[in-house]
Amino acid sequence: MSDPPDERRRLVRPPSGGTAEGRGMGAKVKTADNRTLSSQQWLRRQLNDPFVKAAKAQGYRARAAFKLTEIDDRFHLIGKGSRVIDLGCAPGGWVQVALQRGAAAVAGVDLLPVDPMPPAHLIEGDFTDPAVGPALMAALGGAPDLVLSDMAPNTLGHRQTDHLRIVVLIEAAAAFAVDHLKPGGAFVAKAFQGGETAEVLKTLKAHFADVKHVKPKASRQDSSEVFLVATGFKGR
Predict the structure, then answer these.
(1) Range of weakest confidence among 57-61, 139-143, 212-216, 224-228
(2) What number of helices (H) and strands (E) belong to the chain?
(3) Cα–Cα dist 155/146, whole Å
(4) How far apart are the first and last CA of the chain?
(5) Predicted pLDDT of residue 210
(6) C-alpha–C-alpha distance, residues 234 and 27, integer Å
(7) pLDDT given for residue 59 in this prediction
(8) What is the Cα–Cα distance from 190 to 148, expressed in whole angstroms?
(9) Contact, 78 vs 94, CB < 8 A?
(10) 159 vs 147: CA distance, rounded Å
């Protein structure tokens, strides 16, 4: 669900000035000679991140699992027997959470390959490919109770272009949810502060009883990442 910094630049500027110790950065990266500055900063965060350590201890594939567990604890989205679709599912942390919390059927898609997690059905492909949506629905075997989206584009460093790429993915995920969710269902999507348009929010508010912005504790505080949580799908 998260790419190393060489593939995806963060949308906020890293701290500048002072030493790692002075900024409370914790463990230093000993193998920094052949790494870019952004790679060193990313690895340092990983080494000192309590959620990374907890994910390893609990067998989760990614620290992002804790973002979904916190959201689900608050909104009770995953029930026993639920059908769940996960858009942008690599490396599989959210799929793990859905299965552990009682989902009966889970289907996911990502551009990257994901190690199998039976009984989940995982597709390697581009969600925006017109053939992928029907394939997900066929794998799920019925209308989803929950559509998840942890999709984020690889940023290019041009703010306006990156903003548009983010909006396109949010709009596509929201449209898929509106087209396929079971009445009463829910939609959770990664966004970024200012990264969704008023039109997206208008669409969600028209089709869901409640729409909120949520920033889980596992979402790094220096990140502009937030999550849209839409509950009580009204139907099409």
Answers:
(1) 57-61
(2) 7, 7
(3) 27
(4) 30
(5) 98
(6) 49
(7) 64
(8) 9
(9) no
(10) 28
Here the tokens at position 53 are 């350590």
- List the structure tokens of 120: 């989940």
Hey, what amino acid is at 90?
A
Supply the pLDDT for residue 35.
60
Question: What residue spans define the domains of the chain?
Answer: 1-48, 62-233
Give yes or no for residue 13 having a pLDDT over 90. no
Residue recorded with tokens 């492909």? 125
Please tell me which residue, 93 or 56, carries the higher pLDDT value.
93
Higher-confidence residue of 221 and 117: namely 117
Picking from 65, 229, 74, 81, the residue whose alpha carbon sits closest to that of residue 145 is: 81
Look at residue 24 and tell me whether its pLDDT is greater than 70.
Answer: no
Q: How many CB atoms lie within 10 A of CB 152?
A: 22
Per-residue tokens: 203 = 């669409």
Q: Is residue 217 flagged as an active site residue?
A: no
**pLDDT greater than 80 at residue 8:** no
| Alpha carbon distance 208, 195 (integer Å) | 20
pLDDT tens figures, 127-141 = 999 999 999 999 999
Domain 62-233 architecture:
3-Layer(aba) Sandwich (3.40)
Q: How far apart are CA 165 and CA 126, in angstroms?
A: 14
- Dihedral (Cα; 168, 174, 175, 179), 10-degree rounding: 160
3-state SS assignment for residue 69: helix
Of the candidates 28, 30, 56, 190, the residue annotated as catalytic is: 190
Alpha-carbon span 140 to 106, nearest angstrom = 6
